[in-house]
Amino acid sequence: MRVLFQGLRRPNPDEDFLFPSRSARVMVREVLLLRGATPLVFAHTVFDPAALRGAWRGVAVLGNRPLGAALFADPRIARFPLRQKKLGAAHSLYRRAAAHLKRPPAALWARRSIFAAGKSPILVSEVFLPAVLDL
Fold first, then answer.
1. pTM recorded for the entire structure
2. Which of 54, 90, 95, 111 has the fewest CB atoms within 10 Å, i.e. is most exposed?
3. Is 103 helix (H, G, I), strand (E, B) or coil?
4. CATH number corresponding to 2-134
5. Cβ-contact 10, 25 below 8 angstroms
């Protein structure tokens, strides 16, 4: 796993439903899951930065440890149903994921889910890269 970015950004247009203000900056963590040097999954997580002082304070210190391990280790965290979407080249997550591919396909499949700890949601999106089919 390689951390690509962790910091404040504006949410993507299809993520702002989770936040009270469209102009607000949110905490974003992006990582690339690898098998050797081959990228398999581009993961993108967003949440309210105020939650770093509360429910999600452990996310700030994950470093190269996977977020999934922290999410599934805490029984107080609820997971909402997964949603899938085919991403085309116009989608910002497609563009950021495809930047790690030598020959990006016309579309990539992604899934996302909301996790909640109390009243603090976190949105996790995973974009599956072509090499994941080789597993």
1. 0.90
2. 90
3. coil
4. 3.40.1410.10
5. yes
